[in-house]
Amino acid sequence: MIRFERALPLFVVGALASLASAYSGGPPTRRTGAPGEQTCLSANCHVGERFDDSPTVELDLDGPREYDPGGPRQRWTLRIGDAARAYGLQLSVRRADRPLHPAGRLFPVDGSTTAVVCEDDSIPKAGCPEVSPLEFFHHTEPRRQGVFEVDWTPPRDAIGDLLVYVAANASVAGQRNSRIHLRAFRIPPRRDDVTVFNAASLLPTFSPGAWISIFGSGLAPAALAWQPGGDVPRSLGGVRVTVGGREAGIGFAGPGQINALAPEGVELGPARVEVIRDGAPTLAGQGWLERVSPALFDASRLIRARAGEIVSLNGTGFGPTNPPVPWGSAFEGEARCVLPVVVRAGDAQANLRFAGLVAPGVYRIDFAMPPVPAGIHDLVVSVDGWKAPAGRISSAE
Fold it and tell me: CA 213, 214, 216, 219: dihedral to nearest 10 degrees?
């Protein structure tokens, strides 16, 4: 039977945070050190010491460290606990699973010495333009005290964990003598409002034909599982699930958990998910539907392999196949992924042998372990540039 154990999600470790400078007018945008961006150190606009994941930078919220989707503004206070002549700061809020996408809106508290700008240096009014969507909060004049305040409005929908990339500059004697403190803070959604997850990653992002897990209470009268061999049923024990109004497949139904196969034909974006028990609908929650949502069921275990050894992984959410296979239908054989799949172990790209559907909603990824130094490395699988949350792989001599 197909049943996915509930486990803590494995998140990609937050990348380096934004880098600030302490000159009048504020730092340039897109110098954050987040994925795909430089830092001011690499651009040589600052010289000094660099401190990664620095406890010197603290973030205080005016409430629990979580966000309420569609909720009111929060007041954030950032403190830089480093004795210096002057202080600068830059901050950006991103989705943890898609670090090039902004999350929520930023608003300066002190508009005379701080500002919020879009990545094209324009001032956001009703938000940043689509071509430059990222927002940055930073100083416009150096501060004599290392305390900054900013207001933040949460996103309308639950979009999973967020990362607040912060960089603080404690300037001892100008731009060429600085201590740069980098840190990323994780802010989850209110979990009692988010009960629908990708079954492999436990992130609230999934895609057509991917397995999802729904958690709650009283979802089903008893535990029942689909026995593979035919089409995925649309009902188990009188329990059905709809995603965006369309019937989903049911792989497992229990009082506290349901594993369902997301249907095709649902509009991308926020997706309302309902559990229907004995004909009575119950709102289970809301997730976010994307074109693909790659995730590995194997991400929670440490994989060991020697160079050249073939490794097989199982996952979900890797998109369309050739030949096409109707979602939820039984089939035999292998249907290869249409979109390009890339596997990396540490800094090395692996030789992909196969990536495709092998059972309803389940994909197999086969690759040859590349020659990498002995030790433990991040294992990252992506499809068409969308990365699955990283696993770990150990290379033996």
Answer: -110
Nearest to 167 by CA among 11, 12, 15: 15
d(CA 298, CA 279): 36
Amino acid letter, residue 190? R
The tens digit of pLDDT for each residue in 261-319 reads 999 999 999 888 989 888 877 667 888 999 999 999 988 889 999 999 999 999 999 99
Q: How many domains does the chain have?
A: 3
> The whole model's pTM is what?
0.55
Last residue of a domain, one of 155, 187, 219: 187
Query: 214 and 310 share a domain?
Result: no
- 319 phi, psi to nearest 5 deg: 90, -165
212-221 per-residue burial string, b: 16 or more CB within 10 A, e: under 16: bbbbbeebbe
Q: What are the Cα distances from residue 242, in Å, to 222, 250, 274? A: 20, 10, 5
> Looking at the structure, do residues 52 and 181 belong to the same domain, yes or no?
yes
Q: b/e map of 12-24 (b: 16 or more CB within 10 Å)?
A: bebbbbbbbbbbe
Widest CA span of the chain, in angstroms? 71
The rounded distance, in Å, linking the Cα atoms of 169 and 178 is 6
Tens of pLDDT, residues 98-133 = 888 999 999 999 989 999 999 999 999 888 998 999
Taking CA atoms, 349 is separated from 165, 172, 216, 240, 345, in Å, by 28, 42, 40, 42, 6
Q: Is residue 7 situated within a structural domain?
A: no
Peptide bond into 323 cis (omega under 30): yes
